Amino acid sequence: MNSTEAATYLPGGVGRSSYYVGSRPPRLVRASGYQVQDEHGRWLVDANNNFAVLALGHSNEAVTSAVCDAARDGACFGLPNPWEEQLAEMLVARVEHAEQVQFANSGTEAVMTAVRLARSLTGREKVLGIAGSYHGSSDVALAIKSGADKAAQPDVVTVPLNDVSRLETAFDEHGFDLALVILDLLPNYAGFQPVNDAFLERARQLCDEHGTLLAFDEVISFRLSRDGLQSTKAVSPDITVLGKLIGGGLPIGAVLGSESVMRPTNPLSAAPIEASGTFTGNPISIRAGIACLQQYDEAQISRLNGLGQTLLVELTGQLPPGWSVRGVGSLVRVIQPERSASLPTRHAFWWAAYQRGFVLMPSGLMALSTPMNEEVVGRLAQAVLESAEEAASISREQESPIH
C-alpha cells in the first residue's frame, strides 16, 4: 500500500493518532530483539517498543512459543481458561495490596473498569486526576488529559502535578462527590516528573477522610520494578491498573484490588457491575503475559534500569540550550522547549533520530528493552544528541527575524 492509499483508507494515513509524527510515518514490517525493519528493508534500533510495551524486545523466544502454543490450542473460548488464574496469581504476588484481578483488553478498558468500580462502591460520579495525565482514550480519561471531552468534564476534577494546596482545595470543593482519585506515578504527558511523596501521602489522607478510592495507573511504570513503582512508595492504593508489559506484547489490561474492593465485579455480588468483553482473558494474551513475567525478574529489571541510567547520564547536560532530559529506570524522556511545541519543527527531533536509525516515541520518551546492551545505548545517546541539535537548529532558524 502506498502513502496515498494509506491516507485514503486510514484517517490521516495512520491507524492510531499516537503514531503521528508530523507527516506520514514509516511502516514497520518485522522485528527481532531490539531492532525493527521498515517497509524499505532498513533495520533500526527500537527505543519506542510500542510505547513501552515490549520490555523484552521483539520476538522473544519464550513469548513467541507461548503465543504459538496458545493459538494452536484455541485462540479464544466462551468459558474460562486455566491460564487466567495463573497470571492473576502472579500479579497478586507482585502487588502487595491486591487480592483479586479483573482482566480487560487494554489499559484504557482497565481504567474504565476502575472508574465504574469506584462509582459502584461509593455511589458517586466524580473522578480526580493530575491535569495532562494520560489514562487511555475513554471520555473520563481524555477529560483529565486535555479537557477535550466536554460530555465528561462535569464529572472530572483536575489538579496540577504535585500541587498539594490545589489538591486540598479540590477536596474542599468536591471531596464528598469524588468516587476516585487516579494517579499515574510517572505521568509522561504531564511532564514526566514523578508524583512526589508529599502529594501521594496527602492524597491518601484525603481519600480516607472522604471515603474516596485511590487508584494508581501503572500501565507504563510497572516495568520499573518487579512489584511496580508503587513498591518504592510509602502509600498504597485501593486499586492498581495495569496493561502493556503484562501481556508480553499482546492486548491486555488488568484491575487489581482487595476482595472487598473488587466485589462489584463478582457476578454473584448483590449489585454486580458490567465487567466483560469478548476477548477479555483470552488465552493468547494471558499465556504471553505469563511467559513475559516469568522472564522479567528482578535481575532483568535491575540490568535494564541500569541501562536507562547510563542513557540518562550520557544525555544530561549535553542537550541544546532549553532542552532537558528526565528519566526513571528504563524510561528516559527528552523534553523540548515549550516554544517549539507549536512550530512545524515539532517532530523534527523524531525524524532526525529516525534518519539516524533509531525509533523514538513522538513525545521524546524512550523505553529500553532487555536485548539492548551498553554499546546499543551508547549509539542511541549519540543519535539523540545529534538529532536534538538538528531539531534545535531548525527551530532557531524559524524563530530568526530574517524568517
General description of the model:
The chain is of the alpha/beta class and 403 residues long. It has two domains: 156 residues, Aspartate Aminotransferase, domain 1; 235 residues, 3-Layer(aba) Sandwich (Aspartate Aminotransferase, domain 2). Helix 8 links the parallel strand 7 and strand 8. The radius of gyration is 21 Å and the shape is globular. The model has no long low-confidence stretch (mean pLDDT 93).
Query: In what order do the strands lie side by side in the largest sheet?
Result: 4-10-9-8-7-5-6
Count every beta strand, where a strand is a DSSP E run of 2 or more residues. 14
The CATH architecture of the largest domain is 3-Layer(aba) Sandwich
Oligomeric description of these chains: single chain
**Beta-strand percentage range:** 15-25%
| Overall residue-averaged pLDDT value | 93
Query: Could you tell me how far the N terminus lies from the C terminus, measured between alpha carbons in angstroms?
Result: 38 Å
What's the shape? globular
Helix content: 25-40%
Number of domains: 2
CATH superfamily of the largest domain: Type I PLP-dependent aspartate aminotransferase-like (Major domain)
Could you say what the CATH topology of the largest domain is called? Aspartate Aminotransferase, domain 2
Give a short overview.
The protein is α/β, with parallel strands linked by helices. The protein has helices at 3-9, 49-52, 61-73, 82-94, 107-122, 139-145, 164-174, 197-210, 259-262, 283-295, 298-315, 348-355, 374-399, and strands at 28-32, 35-38, 43-46, 100-104, 126-130, 156-159, 178-184, 213-217, 239-243, 253-257, 324-328, 331-335, 358-359, 365-367. The chain folds into two domains: 3-55 and 297-399, Alpha-Beta Complex (Aspartate Aminotransferase, domain 1); 61-295, Type I PLP-dependent aspartate aminotransferase-like (Major domain) (Aspartate Aminotransferase, domain 2, 3-Layer(aba) Sandwich), CATH 3.40.640.
